[in-house]
Specification:
The structure is a single chain. The protein is of the alpha/beta class. It folds into 2 domains: 3-111; 150-260, Diaminopimelate Epimerase, Chain A, domain 1 (Roll), CATH 3.10.310. 41% of the residues lie in helices and 18% in strands. The chain is built from 9 helices and 10 strands. It has a 6-stranded mixed sheet with strand order 5-6-7-8-10-9. It has a 4-stranded parallel sheet with strand order 2-1-3-4. Strand 5 (165-167) and strand 6 (170-174) form a beta hairpin. The model has no long low-confidence stretch (mean pLDDT 97).
Length: 261
């Protein structure tokens, strides 16, 4: 019986996970280069074939959207650090994979440590481990590229940030892009941005928020089915897709109320 790894949404950490698997588990992973929000159902047939072969499916940052009767979860494994698995003292997905592959600590490179820090706690976590501004900017640029953030998204982020509105510790940025990564990075004071305490990014059909752990926890509790992660309980990120456009104003008002608290 062997592990077969199923890869989730693309970012820099997932890119490095694929590189580790290419080196240490060739032929034992399945990567459909999915976007964030990837689900078990994206791999339904592959999961069935893996179980039929007597192997163990290992899901890396995938949302379990299949019915309980679809397969025995005890026959599978999960690698993730989002939602309830997120936290300052929890290993990131790449750290979990490194351990599962049984790799020696001598192969844990400074680059892997920087990528893990970035994925756990964004710029603050990289700075805490001693990364320079240039190193942090380079990792963030790689991460945005891996996520599919375009030059047009970067330019739109500049426009949206210039039009931001602030009230107390709340900053709201509205964008026509469907990604918040460029905005969160360009807003960050350690990368030369104006800084923020609690940030809401309003996108077509979805919302994101960045800030302290208390805010993230409150948003996660208020909106079942949303997603969150980060360096909790210190700080993190939160996001949700809008169920229908007609609810936009109502949902945004509720988010703003929570973030202002």
């Amino acid at each position: 019986m062997a592990d077969l790894y199923f890869l989730g949404g693309q970012d820099l950490e997932m890119t490095e996970i694929r590189h580790l698997l290419e080196q240490h588990a060739p032929g034992r992973y399945c990567d459909k280069r999915l976007a964030w929000g990837a689900k078990f159902s994206d791999y339904t047939d592959d999961i069935a074939a893996t179980l039929d072969a007597g192997d163990t499916p290992v899901f890396i940052e995938l949302i379990d959207d299949l019915p309980p009767e679809a397969f025995d979860r005890a026959r599978a494994a999960v690698i993730d650090h989002h939602g309830p698995l997120a936290g300052h003292d929890r290993p990131t997905s790449i750290e979990q994979l490194f351990a599962r592959l049984g790799l020696p600590q001598t192969q844990w490179t400074p680059r892997l440590a920087l990528i893990a820090a970035n994925d756990r706690g964004h710029i603050a976590a990289m700075k805490e481990m001693g990364a320079s501004t240039a190193e942090m900017a380079a990792i963030r640029e790689e991460d945005r590229a891996a996520q599919g953030v375009t030059v047009e998204d970067e330019v739109e982020a500049e426009r949206a940030i210039a039009a931001r509105r602030s009230e107390g510790r709340l900053t709201i940025v509205e964008t026509v892009s469907r990604t918040s990564s460029a905005i969160a990075d360009q807003m960050h004071v350690d990368l030369g941005g104006p800084g923020y305490e609690r940030l809401i990014v309003v996108m077509p059909g979805k919302f994101a928020a960045f800030g302290d752990g208390a805010m993230i926890t409150a948003l996660a509790a208020a909106f079942p089915g949303s997603y969150w992660g980060g360096d909790l309980p210190r700080a993190g990120f939160w996001g949700m897709d809008l169920p229908q456009d007609s609810l936009h104003d109502e949902v945004l008002a509720r988010i703003e109320t929570i973030v202002r608290a």
